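Progress against Task 2.4 (sequence-to-structure conversion) is shown through the following example record, which the project officer requested during the mid-term review.
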Amino acid sequence: MLTVRFEDMDLQPGMRVLDLGCGRGRHLHALYWNEVPLEVVGVDLSHGEVKAALDGFFDLPPPEPHSDRRWAGTYAGDAARLPFADASFDRIICSEVLEHVPDPDAALAEIARLLKPGGLFAASVPRYWPEKICWKLSTEYHNTPGGHVRIFKSDALKNSVERQGLARFARHWAHGLHSPYWWLQCALWDKRETSARVRLYRKFLEWDLMQKPLFTRILEWFAAPVMGKSVVMYFRKSIS
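Structure tokens generated for the chain above:
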């Protein structure tokens, strides 16, 4: 389930791409198997998540052989202190991460440092009002270890990124069909693992993800701008 639209990232062969806060590797793996050959790097604070992301490369067959470079690597590290040189990435993705970070401005400063002049950065965070409902329905939702420590307003995040010398050029919302699922989980937090309603909605989302029927694609097209679980913004670093 991808949140960032790669078509908005203008990926070119041989580019070096960082997936910051890669988790188990959903964007990282998709970047590696993208039709455009890339050098991709995944970083996450959790060593367990990094290991799972690395293991995921062996769950699918390797790409077709070709002369272009295609490479992937994973590291465990802190988003506020990354072991890479200045201007070392053409593109950076940070999806559903900043809401977990104690000091998002420090992470954004690192992103700006690592991004090449003219490079692109994609950030996604939970959308304010669907996330606010989750917090209202369940205290445990955001108080679990590694959980969300803040709710972003879209304009506030935009301003924080732009203070680092990047300019937003696109925005969209994603996962409109997922907001009711999270509201249902939060409303039934103590029973969410056993609830028939939660399991049924999860099966619906899994079916949608695997089958991609036209019916749900149309539903998502209408639902995402209205109640998308995530807001996704794209920024370009100044050349000067």
